[in-house]
Design goal:
Blueprint: H1 2-6, H2 12-38, H3 42-50, H4 52-62, H5 67-91, H6 96-115, H7 121-130, H8 138-157, H9 159-167, H10 169-174, H11 179-201, H12 206-220, H13 224-249, H14 253-281
Helix pairs in contact: 2-8, 2-11, 2-12, 2-13, 3-6, 3-11, 3-12, 4-5, 4-6, 5-6, 5-11, 7-11, 8-11, 9-11, 12-13, 12-14, 13-14
Length: 284
């Protein structure tokens, strides 16, 4: 058993992958809790797909050899798209989900159009679609650490304001809290989280990583602080277990991490339903 646990750690790429998977699991779970509170589960998927134009333009401008440059193109695009979604939903009569859908569809179509003009991009695109956590470098870890810790620090420092804006924006305005500012900030935080997580789970699985651990924690606890802690713990465990399954079973690492998260959710759901049934059947 000890050898089974230690063997993957002899490879530097596995150690880097485990660190990244744990960090991304914690980050996605913490930010995902606010996504669920706001009823914005669609935004993670939308932002992940909306960065395609930025990635394509970066690929055309700097070439596929400079993957560091592609990260900054993706980050800049994600933040601009997030601010655009917030602006459309606030300045027009569109609901938030409608604004997200419009921007998502437009940006995704533009990304596909740009990608179709570039030869040789399809191979590199696979990493964005399905993730490549085992290909994470020391530079990537520095980026994840710097941006991830900044996001968690913002969530800690602005916890009360973000919670109030998420639960009751009318009350926030009554208390003279600058609700639009924190709303835009939350959009930017989600955008940063999405970009940091793409290399771990990819575009196709980003939404699951953002929503599943937080949803599992919501089934297990009723208080938000506990939900944040439990979700972060489950996200980190899913990252580690998923990466070990990927190493020994030869399956895609991003898919393995998400499947472990889904398994945790199903277990929590069954336990929750069983608890409710027992309470219903228990005589008064």
């Amino acid at each position: 058993m000890v050898e089974w646990l230690v063997a993957p750690l002899r490879f530097a790429f596995m150690v880097r992958g485990l660190i990244a998977a744990i960090a991304v699991g914690v980050l996605c779970s913490a930010v995902g809790a606010f996504v669920i509170l706001r009823g914005m589960t669609f935004i993670g998927d939308a932002l992940a797909h909306s960065i395609l134009p930025g990635v394509a333009i970066g690929f055309i401008s700097i070439g596929k050899g400079d993957r560091r440059g592609l990260f900054w193109w993706a980050m800049g695009t994600a933040i601009l798209v997030a601010l655009g979604m917030g602006w459309i939903s606030e300045r027009t009569r569109f609901r938030e989900d409608a604004a997200i859908g419009i921007v998502f569809a437009g940006m995704f179509a533009l990304g596909i159009a740009l990608i179709s003009t570039v030869r040789g991009f399809s191979v590199d695109l696979v990493h964005f679609l399905f993730g490549n956590v085992l290909g994470i470098s020391n530079y990537d870890l520095i980026l994840i650490g710097a941006f991830g810790s900044s996001v968690l620090l913002l969530l800690f420092l602005l916890y009360k304001e973000l919670v109030l804006v998420s639960f009751d924006i009318t009350l926030a305005r009554t208390l003279r809290i600058r609700a639009p500012l924190y709303r835009y900030l939350l959009f930017v935080i989600i955008a940063i989280t999405v970009v940091l997580s793409l290399q771990t789970v990819g575009i196709g699985l980003m939404l699951a990583m953002l929503v599943t651990p937080a949803s599992t924690a919501q089934l297990l606890t009723k208080r938000l602080p506990a939900m944040l802690f439990v979700g972060a713990l489950l996200g980190a465990i899913a990252g580690v277990v998923g990466l070990y399954l990927s190493f020994y079973w030869g399956i895609a690492s991003g898919a393995a991490i998400v499947l472990v998260s889904i398994f945790f959710f199903l277990c929590a759901l069954i336990a929750s339903l069983r608890h409710r049934m027992l309470r219903f059947l228990r005589p008064n």
